[in-house]
Every structure is written in C-alpha cells, then in structure tokens.
Amino acid sequence: MTHGRPSCYPPVNQTPAASVSNGVGRVTVALLSIQRRESHARSPQADPPVVAAVAAAVVGGVGLALPFQLGAFVLAAGAGLGIVRPIAVRHIKQPPLLKTGTSALVGRSAIVTEVVTALDGRVRIGGEVWSARSYDESSVIPEGSKVDVLAIEGATALVHPRE
After folding, report:
1. What count of other Cβ atoms lies within 10 Å of the Cβ of residue 130?
2. Better-scored residue on pLDDT, 89 or 121
3. Whether residue 142 sits in one domain with residue 116
4. Who has the most CB within 10 Å: 29, 89, 105, 121?
5. Which domain holds residue 151?
6. Same domain, yes or no, for 88 and 107?
C-alpha cells in the first residue's frame, strides 16, 4: 500500500500536461476507429466531424496543448461543412422528375379528329391519335376543336373543350 491506496490499483499518473494531451489524442483516435467501423456500413465517405476529430488527434499527437487541438477541430469541422453543405443543398434542391408516359399527356392540348362524346371520340395529342371521351358527360365536342387533356384512363383521354 503506497500513499493510502491499495496495491491492486495502479499508481496515480503524475505526468506533465503535454503527455496528458497526447493521451487525449490517443483516446480520440481509438474512439474514431470505433465510430468509423460503425459508420462504414452507412457511407464510404469521411464524415466532417470524423475528419475534424482526426485533425485534433494529429495536433495532440504532435504534442500541442488542448486549445490548439480544439482550434484544429473547429477549423476542420468548419471547412468540412463549407465543402459538404453546398453539395447536400444541391442534392436536396433537384428539379422535379420529368413526367413520362401517360402522365406527361395530362395538361397538354389536343385537336379533336372525330366528334367526342361521353362515350367515344378521337383526338390528336402531339403526333398520336388517342381514343377520347368528354370529361363533362353532357358535352359534345365537334371535330377540329381544341381541347385540354384532363386525365388518362387506360388508353382513353378525358378531354374538355378550351375556352
């Protein structure tokens, strides 16, 4: 028993501050290796906080004091966010997906090629002739009229006369 402590405990560390900061750097590296193993399944790229922690660990490993390590962490994290944030914003603000297929026809104008009633008719949408029905069951749309395509049901366009 030394200095009032049982012998089963290791002696108290009385090393200078530089060694303690190196210890902090070693602990940071150990924690980072654990964090990287967990995040490896998520993304193969380095996360900005991880890069910042590595920078702080390197500064601590060189032997610089804790304020320099914190400064390195803040600078590296800020630089990482300055690089990663614009890329993330670009991905979030992507233009809406292009409409394809029948959904691309809704809202377009068409020309009636055969009289359109509530039961049948034909319209030319773009360069294609489609079977059509009047959206309003009581209206009859004469040949040559301009119509708007309001919906597509199967292979039939539901149309309404332009006003």
Report:
1. 20
2. 121
3. yes
4. 121
5. 101-161
6. no
Backbone φ and ψ for 114, nearest 5 degrees, come out as -135, 145
Claim to verify: residue 23 and residue 58 sit in the same structural domain:
yes
Q: Write out pLDDT tens, residues 54-101.
A: 888 889 888 889 999 999 999 998 888 888 888 888 888 887 778 888
In a domain, 10, yes or no: no
The per-residue pLDDT for 123 is: 97
The domain boundary residue, chosen from 68, 92, 116: 92
Tokens found for residue 83: 């690089």
C-alpha to C-alpha distance for 11 and 3, rounded to whole angstroms: 9
Highest mean pLDDT among 9-18, 21-30, 39-48, 147-156: 147-156
Task: Give me the residue label for tokens 């200078």.
Answer: 16
First to last CA, the chain: 101
Lowest mean pLDDT among 37-46, 105-114, 130-139, 145-154: 37-46
Q: Domain total for the chain?
A: 2
